[in-house]
Amino acid sequence: MSAISVGQAVVLGAVEGVTEFLPVSSTGHLKITEGLMGIPVDDDAVVGFSAVIQVGAIAAVLVYFRKDIARILAAWFRGLANKDERYHHDYKFAWWVICATIPIVAVGLAAKPLIQGPLASLWVVAGSLIAGSGVMWAADQIGRHKRGEDDTSFKDAMLVGGSQILALLFPGFSRSGATMSTALMLDLDRVAATRLSFFLGIPALTGAGLYELKDALGTGAGAAPLIVGTAVSFVVAYASIAWLLKFVARHSFNAFVIYRIVVGLLLFGLLGTGVLNS
């Protein structure tokens, strides 16, 4: 029997879709939701299910930014074939994304025992949610929001891409939260920071999703829940991306800061009372 029902798959797919790209930690939200529904979070089938439905969210960002991705890839291939095309920002940006992905891949492979061991604790997630909210608030206040997407540089890409390591080691910190905060500290405006976060996350998220997918499909999570959860994750993530880009164009990140603190404190409470196991 599957460890997850179709109904539970719908809920978990929606949670994954909403939280994967918002700066609020999808890992923490999935674990809390699984725990509250009585799903054994350490079960191999459950871990595999979470890995598979993440692919739905990754597919959503690929589809949403398909025109940008196609333009950047076209510029990169043109530049590889013709040196006169290498002045183009899209060509350089493609290389920056590749270079900025290398640190997180290296750390991910080297620190895998820690990441899947003690750092996977929900106590770490709760603490990182709160600590990360402080960083995000400070970044939004300090940043001058004066630089757009066309003003990004290799230094920006490396610093923002490298900040993903924080979320890798401290999952509650949130990959998007870390990258957006770093971009804001570099004086990018909120929309540019958010889009840069998406683009720099595509290789790492896609690679991680495919890497986990090969093992996750054989865990016995059940075909129907996997299909339903992935489909829901895709649809909800697509809507979440569109909403986030519109939201940051008009608002600060304060709402996310407050929300993260509330969830972090809630998670501490659930762990402290034994409702959830770390």
Summary of the model, kept short:
The protein is an all-alpha fold and 278 residues long. It has 13 helices and no strands. It has helices at 6-19, 26-36, 44-64, 66-81, 89-110, 112-116, 122-142, 154-162, 164-169, 175-185, 190-216, 223-248, 254-272.
Please describe what this structure looks like.
The structure is a single chain. The protein is an all-alpha fold. The mean pLDDT is 89. It has 13 helices and no strands.
Q: What is the strand and helix layout of this fold?
A:
Blueprint: H1 6-19, H2 26-36, H3 44-64, H4 66-81, H5 89-110, H6 112-116, H7 122-142, H8 154-162, H9 164-169, H10 175-185, H11 190-216, H12 223-248, H13 254-272
Helix pairs in contact: 1-2, 1-3, 1-12, 3-11, 3-12, 4-5, 5-8, 5-11, 7-10, 7-13, 8-10, 10-11, 11-12
- Overall number of strands: 0
Oligomeric status: single chain
SS-derived structural category: mainly alpha
Number of helices: 13
Query: How far apart are the termini?
Result: 25 Å
> What Rg is obtained from the alpha carbons, in whole angstroms?
19 Å
| SSE succession | HHHHHHHHHHHHH
- Please give the largest β-sheet: none
Mean pLDDT: 89
Flag low-confidence runs.
none
- Residue fraction in strands: under 5%
Q: Which shape, going by the Cα principal axes?
A: globular
Estimated helix fraction: over 70%
